[in-house]
Design brief:
Elements lengths: L2 H22 L1 H25 L2 H25 L1 H8 L2 H6 L4 H30 L9 H28 L4 H15 L11 H7 L3 H15 L7 H32 L7
Helix pairs in contact: 1-6, 2-3, 2-6, 3-6, 3-7, 3-8, 3-10, 7-8, 7-10, 7-11, 10-11
């Protein structure tokens, strides 16, 4: 068995393990899905109340695609927290598996789970609102999401360090990061309405470029060439954040092992 085959099998094992965890806690998964649907509907009805179809469509896009981004981020960021909650952190960290394989498996499951979760919300919102998709460019939307997902994965890997280093408060800190991304990324409004100092932060958030590109593609039929100014920042962020996240995670893991932070508590 080659090293590549062995590590691919290890990555798939983490996909399977996370699927089994979701199945075990299906009640919570259903509750989170219902909450996500309720939140998306509550936001989208604002546009319906105003009688503005474009506003409604813009809010629907924000609700759907933010759900995908936040789901992917939270799954990756909570990788270590899940291990600690299950009491398997020490065993996983000491197992003869490359950490990149573990993170690859967790990331792959996060992307698949996010797609399923978001598809359900999309179907529900489509049943509630008559969305004009005659001008939509789905290639642009899919391309932006594919490119942008790399940067979200990189941020998620970096955030996963927090539960590793801070046993009691790490998971809460990842939620704070997610909340800050929600505020500055123009999920439900244009970033131009933000104070100037927050607009600077918005330009550092990959979600800002993802949502802008997706909206341009679905609302205006923009091509990938038309949203190039959203694509190149996302490409740079993805190329930088994922290697940086893996390097930082490795440093944090060595520190946690050296200082005895691999506790099954918290």
């Amino acid at each position: 068995m080659t090293a590549v085959t062995r590590e691919t099998g290890a990555a798939f094992a983490f996909v399977e393990r996370n699927f089994n965890l979701s199945r075990r806690y299906w009640g919570w998964e259903l509750a989170f899905l219902v909450y996500a649907i309720a939140g998306a509907l509550a936001i989208s009805f604002i546009g319906a109340e105003q009688g503005d179809q474009r506003l409604t469509f813009s809010l629907v896009i924000g609700a759907i695609f933010w759900n995908y981004l936040s789901t992917v981020f939270s799954f990756i960021a909570e990788t270590i927290a899940w291990e600690r909650w299950e009491g398997t952190l020490e065993y996983t960290m000491m197992a003869p598996v490359r950490r990149a394989s573990q993170l690859l498996g967790s990331t792959s499951y996060a992307l698949l789970y996010g797609l399923v979760h978001t598809t359900v919300i999309l179907v529900v919102l489509t049943l509630f609102f008559e969305l004009d998709l005659s001008q939509a460019n789905f290639v642009t939307a899919a391309g932006i999401m594919a490119i942008g997902s790399f940067s979200i994965v990189g941020i998620g890997i970096m955030a996963a360090i927090l539960p590793l280093l801070y046993v009691e408060r790490g998971a809460q800190m990842t939620f704070v990061i997610q909340s800050c991304l929600l505020v500055v990324s123009g999920v439900y409004y244009s970033v131009e309405v933000l104070p100037e100092w927050m607009q600077v932060l918005a330009r550092l958030s990959p979600a800002t470029y993802i949502l802008d590109g997706v909206r341009r593609g679905l609302l205006d039929g923009a091509t990938l060439a038309d949203v190039w100014y959203d694509i190149w920042p996302l490409a740079i962020m993805g190329a930088v954040l994922i290697p940086s996240g893996l390097w930082l995670f490795g440093r944090a893991e060595r520190y946690a092992k050296r200082t005895g932070k691999l506790k099954r508590v918290g």
